[in-house]
Task: inverse folding
């Protein structure tokens, strides 16, 4: 596995290792993030994503390897790094009794270079809640506040650790728009997530992590097509069609069944579907919710680890 | 500096929006003061005034003066030599001493003929016993008014002298003690919110900004000192306005001790918080430590009333010295230890606790 070298890297990680006692939370990883890029660390809980990000933010010290962020060595130069980065931690709690405006103003006092409070409130769509104490904000508002606090110093590089975990779909989508906006402003973003859809939608490139290692790295399309040339024909689970019979259909590579659905992976969708419908028809059956699916990052993760991402 | 002040303001806002915390900050010492103040207000003086009478003149005029005083209702005169009378005042047997100096009779005669200025009688009072002092000068004024017969210039004028006695009335003893207790609580609980912020990962988030740790601690200390000063003003105001406590000592020195005490207890609070993981644990631990201190430090009753082994503990705990120092400075209370010893003990606690907390306090 080789890390593609970006021309102008804002993050450069070589052989990063972090141990907690006997546990190797990060077991020697390499990657680079280019300027203006949205880079994702995708993996299940405990994969080592947060540990990696917190090392990059200067919150933890690495046990091995070279880590450079915006040209600063995170071991020696963290004081000069902090003014230039924006950070949103996994747990986005803040002083509960301070209002949105007060918190933004407070964080602005920590930095030399800042954006106006009103501008941040507008950008994060917190206008209606500007005088609300942070303890009464909804989950989505709280996350937006966390992002606002990460942007007070107009940072070149923004770290977002699981920014949409626990949010409802609408709140998640609104945050996605926001993150795309960061990129449009010319900022670089490193985000972690265990939602493969989020990684697919937002990230220019991503690294799939598990047990402290990077398993694969690249664009979402590259990762999927590298592992799955074929597409899947899917339909609701149907009694009366044996797995052997499905596997014997033309162009079929493999067949997967669970309690809900059947997935027939094929190199050529047309002949497979034709033969499938003919076979079902001959038994007097009809496949329900028939569809064609491209493989997803979820499938890639499953193929790489034998486990589903969200378990 | 900007960050330090912004964070201090943020802390104060959080604090004042926490109604329960605010209530206890103000109500706790006041409840005690009012409760004990009303309980003990009725007792003690009993209305009567016992005066040590020292006649160094032995003339007819001085005898007349004695009778004039004796004729006042509620006055009991105890004849003694000056040394004896002042000793009795120290012991609390008499609340004031009046000395008629030798030459009093001649002085009156001279003043009557207009060949000399007014003569004097010396009146010793204890400035910390404001109620008694007021009554004494009222009586003295009434009696001398009769002697002077409105004559102008007056024949006799009182010459006030003060004598610091160890006989504080209870409320005078209690008000500076309550102030010390409040200062302790403001300080010792200061680290608990920090533990809560650590638990909520707020400290971690702050660590990702350029904010320095000294700014974080500094804002916590600043805010707590402000609260301590605020409490001091309220406690002293209530003591003065409602219970006639007379704060005689220099304000500057009181403030120095309030700050020294608050900072020492802050450091102790950080030490206690260093050995706890959660806000609840920090709260519990701090309560467990402060509660016995409250009762063993002479805040509610003088240390001499306690058995020897408890007195030994009292000699160790910092609240003893803060309360003692504040009583000495503010109302002229009897010294348990000299002021410099109080300052030294509090400083020692501060240094030791600071050293431990600096090493042990966990930020993440």
Result:
């Amino acid at each position: 596995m080789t890390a593609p070298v970006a021309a102008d890297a804002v993050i450069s990680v070589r052989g990063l290792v972090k141990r907690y006692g006997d546990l190797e939370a990060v077991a020697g990883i390499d990657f680079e993030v280019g300027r203006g890029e949205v880079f994702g660390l995708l993996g299940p809980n405990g994969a080592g994503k947060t540990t990696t990000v917190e090392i990059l933010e200067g919150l933890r010290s690495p046990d091995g390897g070279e880590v450079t962020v915006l040209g600063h060595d995170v071991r020696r130069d963290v004081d000069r790094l902090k003014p230039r980065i924006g950070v949103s931690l996994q747990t986005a709690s803040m002083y509960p009794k301070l209002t949105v405006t007060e918190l933004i103003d407070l964080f602005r006092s920590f930095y030399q270079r800042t954006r106006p409070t009103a501008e941040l409130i507008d950008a994060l769509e917190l206008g209606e809640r500007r005088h609300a104490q942070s303890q009464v904000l909804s989950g989505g508002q709280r996350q937006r506040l966390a992002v606002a606090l990460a942007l007070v110093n107009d940072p070149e590089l923004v770290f977002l650790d699981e920014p949409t975990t626990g949010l409802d779909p609408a709140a998640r989508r609104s945050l996605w728009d926001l993150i795309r906006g960061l990129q449009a402003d010319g900022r670089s973003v490193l985000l972690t997530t265990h939602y493969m859809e989020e990684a697919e939608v937002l990230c220019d490139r991503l690294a799939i992590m598990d047990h402290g290692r990077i398993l694969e790295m690249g664009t979402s399309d590259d990762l999927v097509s590298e592992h799955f040339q074929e597409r899947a024909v899917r339909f609701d689970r149907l009694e009366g069609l044996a797995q052997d019979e499905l596997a014997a259909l033309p162009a079929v590579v493999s067949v997967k069944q669970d309690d809900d659905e059947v997935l027939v992976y094929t190199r050529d969708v047309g002949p497979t579907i034709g033969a499938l419908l003919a076979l079902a028809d001959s038994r007097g059956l009809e496949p329900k919710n028939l569809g064609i699916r491209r493989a997803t990052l979820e499938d890639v993760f499953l193929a790489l680890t034998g486990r589903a991402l969200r378990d | 500096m900007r960050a330090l002040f912004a964070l201090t303001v943020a802390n104060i806002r959080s604090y004042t929006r926490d109604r329960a915390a605010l209530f206890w900050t103000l109500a706790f010492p006041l409840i005690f003061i009012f409760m004990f103040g009303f309980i003990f207000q009725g007792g003690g003086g009993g209305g009567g005034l016992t005066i040590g009478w020292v006649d160094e003149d032995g003339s007819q005029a001085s005898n007349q003066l004695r009778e004039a005083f004796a004729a006042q209702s509620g006055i009991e005169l105890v004849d003694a030599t000056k040394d004896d009378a002042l000793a009795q005042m120290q012991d609390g047997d008499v609340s004031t001493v009046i000395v008629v100096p030798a030459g009093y009779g001649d002085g009156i005669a001279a003043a009557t003929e207009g060949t000399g200025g007014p003569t004097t009688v010396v009146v010793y009072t204890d400035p910390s016993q404001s109620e008694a002092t007021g009554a004494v000068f009222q009586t003295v004024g009434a009696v001398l008014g009769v002697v002077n017969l409105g004559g102008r210039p007056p024949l006799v004028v009182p010459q006030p002298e003060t004598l610091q006695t160890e006989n504080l009335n209870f409320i005078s003893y209690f008000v500076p003690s309550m102030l010390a207790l409040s200062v302790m609580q403001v300080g010792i609980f200061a680290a608990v919110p920090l533990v809560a912020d650590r638990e909520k990962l707020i400290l971690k988030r702050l660590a990702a900004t350029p904010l320095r740790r000294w700014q974080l601690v500094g804002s916590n200390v600043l805010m707590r000192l402000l609260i301590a000063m605020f409490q001091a003003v309220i406690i002293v105001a209530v003591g003065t306005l409602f219970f006639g406590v007379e704060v005689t000592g220099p304000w500057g020195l009181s403030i120095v001790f309030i700050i020294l005490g608050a900072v020492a207890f802050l450091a102790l609070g950080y030490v206690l918080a260093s050995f706890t993981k959660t806000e609840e644990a920090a709260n519990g631990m701090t309560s467990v430590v402060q509660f016995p201190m409250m009762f063993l430090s002479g805040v509610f009753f003088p240390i001499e009333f306690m058995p020897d082994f408890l007195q030994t503990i009292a000699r160790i705990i910092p609240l003893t010295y803060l309360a003692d120092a504040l009583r000495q400075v503010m109302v002229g209370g009897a010294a348990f230890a000299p002021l410099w010893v109080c300052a030294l003990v509090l400083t020692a606690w501060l240094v030791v606790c600071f050293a431990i907390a600096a090493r042990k306090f966990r930020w993440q």
